[in-house]
Specification:
binds ligand F0G; 2 domains; Aspartate Aminotransferase, domain 1; Aspartate Aminotransferase, domain 2; three-stranded antiparallel sheet; about 475 residues; 14 strands; globular
């Protein structure tokens, strides 16, 4: 698990004559094709950010130097995946690539039925529509934006049942994504109807934090007692498996593939964004063990996504995803993937920058509250930090704080999340260690200028998932904290 520590002093064998004690890891691939990226001047970035309403989602990617907006759909595919693209069977029905995908999902995730979708939220939509009735309650280990939206859109109330430590950016709990069983039991006892429990791994909004195998087992047991199914958001479940291998006693000797399969066995189905773990640029699926429910989902997928043997994907996309799944469960891949995120996180920590700890699986989260301790949450500290980072060196990040949290669907009031974070999300197999160094140094430069930041005001707020399209303007003077 431990990559070489960035703060370790270099070894000079010639002058010290010491034994070489350090054994570094490196990525289990080499680069076959490159994509040029361009540097911009500060003036160009100021113009670009102004035109984008201080929202990094509205920047053109051409104006970005190092793009850490998201790990979603941004992976570099392998030569084996690209070869699979050429083997696309573009039949409308029954494409052989669908069956390859079905085999890969059954082999590694273990669920019986596969309903392909264009991406994760397509699966969330179908699952919410077939399982939720108005007035239902859905407990989950912290919300994810699109997941909660679809649950609420189907008429449910979402209740957060994650452990308290998840809301504390400095708690060192090794499995900060865990479900608080007492909180969950209270909901199961008191709510009129719970269609399913929503279990996400790793937990994106908590900082990419994992859930332990013991916790998954306990959730399963509790839900079995209350006869409530558990639905997994498996988007980063292989990264979660790596953390179980690295941190949970008894799993050191097991492979990520074995751990993933066991983890999924405690759940009844999953929604999946293949754009993350599965190493593709587009694709997703819904898996279910219950045949009757799967029939309902297959019926609904034809309305919104496409026939149940392609669900919005081309045959070639399904082949790339089937192959991506095979590559994603390799331990060496995961070591490098999570190790690179940890490398950046440790570097930032060594520079004294406030980050969420432990470092998560897909991203390093800067703690904007500690970055700007006197900035009120209504001046959008994380959105401000994300803008400042772009201005400094063209690094694109994402706000994960009050803007992302949105408004309460019943009262219309702003949610005020405890976590006010900026996510530096690392695409898989895309950037090198040198890129990580450049990013860390840019974050430090912004940290050193932190007293100058004034904050932002929101000047346009879309109705749904506002963080994607909201627009901001800089405040002229600081608001009082
Ligand atoms: N669940 C989780 C945990 C996610 O992180 C995402 C997407 C989804 C579901 C939805 O999947 O994008 O394929 O429709 N997260 C992206 C991100 C957008 O940047 O974290 P999707």
């Amino acid at each position: 698990m431990k990559p070489q520590s960035p703060v370790q002093t270099p070894i000079n064998l010639r002058t010290t004559g010491q034994q070489l004690h350090r054994r570094s890891w490196a990525e289990p691939w080499k680069i076959k094709m490159v994509e040029p990226i361009k540097k911009t001047t500060r003036r160009q970035r100021e113009a670009a950010l102004g035109a984008a309403g201080y929202n990094t989602f509205l920047l053109r990617s051409e104006d970005v130097y190092i793009d850490l907006l998201t790990d979603s759909g941004t992976s570099a595919m392998s030569d084996w995946q690209w070869a699979g693209i050429m083997l696309g069977d573009e039949a409308y029905a029954g494409s052989k690539n669908y069956y390859h995908l079905e085999d890969a999902v059954q082999k590694h995730y273990g669920f019986k039925h596969l309903i392909p979708t264009h991406q994760g939220r397509g699966a969330e939509h179908i699952l919410s529509q077939i399982m939720i009735r108005p007035g239902d309650t859905v407990p989950g280990n912290m919300y994810f934006t699109t997941t909660r939206y679809h649950q609420e859109h189907a008429g449910a109330k979402f209740v957060d049942v994650i452990i308290d430590e998840a809301h504390d950016p400095v708690s060192l709990h090794p499995f900060k994504g865990n479900v608080d069983l007492a909180k969950l039991e209270r909901v199961l006892k008191e709510a009129a109807h719970v269609p399913y429990v929503s279990l996400a791994v790793t937990v994106n909004m908590a900082g990419g934090q994992p859930v332990s195998m013991a916790n998954a087992r306990a959730v399963r047991e509790l839900c079995t007692r209350y006869e409530v199914p558990v639905m997994l958001d498996a988007t980063r479940a292989v990264e979660n498996a790596w953390f179980i291998k690295a941190r949970e006693p008894g799993f050191e000797g097991r492979t990520c593939a074995e751990i993933l399969k066991e983890f999924c066995s405690y759940t009844d189905g999953c929604t999946m964004s293949g754009k993350k773990d599965a190493l593709v640029n587009i694709g997703g699926w819904l898996s279910l063990n219950d045949g009757k429910l799967a029939d309902k989902a297959r019926n609904m997928v034809v309305i919104y996504e496409g026939l149940h043997t392609y669900g919005g994907m081309a045959g070639r996309d399904m082949e790339a995803m089937a192959r991506g799944i095979e590559e994603s469960v390799e331990d060496e891949h995961m070591r490098a993937r999570v190790g690179q995120v940890e490398y950046l996180g440790e570097l930032l920590q060594s520079y004294g920058v406030p980050v969420v700890v432990p470092i998560g699986g897909h991203a390093v989260y800067l703690d904007a509250r500690r970055f700007y301790p006197n900035m009120p949450q209504d001046s959008f500290p994380a959105q401000t930090l994300s803008a400042e980072l772009y201005l400094d060196a063209g690094v694109r990040s994402m706000e994960r704080g009050i803007v992302s949290a949105g408004r309460d669907s019943a009262t219309g009031k702003n949610h005020y999340p405890k976590l006010e974070l900026v996510r530096l999300t690392i695409p898989r197999r895309v950037y090198t260690q040198a890129h990580m160094d450049v990013v860390a140094e840019s974050v430090v430069a912004v940290y050193q200028q932190k007293v100058k930041a004034k904050g932002l005001k929101m000047v346009y707020e879309p109705e749904y998932l506002r963080f994607f399209q909201a627009r901001f303007e800089p405040l002229k003077s600081k608001a009082k904290g």
